[in-house]
Every structure is written in structure tokens, then in C-alpha cells.
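Please, structure for the following, as C-alpha cells.
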Amino acid sequence: MTTVLLTGFEPFAGDSANPSGDAVR
């Protein structure tokens, strides 16, 4: 989970919609 938050462009838990990237935006 932390890795996804750090990257921001990787899918969240393998999900197509990546909330991390949306939050970074």
C-alpha cells in the first residue's frame, strides 16, 4: 500500500482505478 502511495501511478491493489494517483493530482 505504501509503495502505491509513493509511486502514485501504480494501480491500487491491482485495481484499474488508482485512487493514489487521483489523490496526488
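The chain has a mean pLDDT of 57. Helices lie at 2-7, 19-24.
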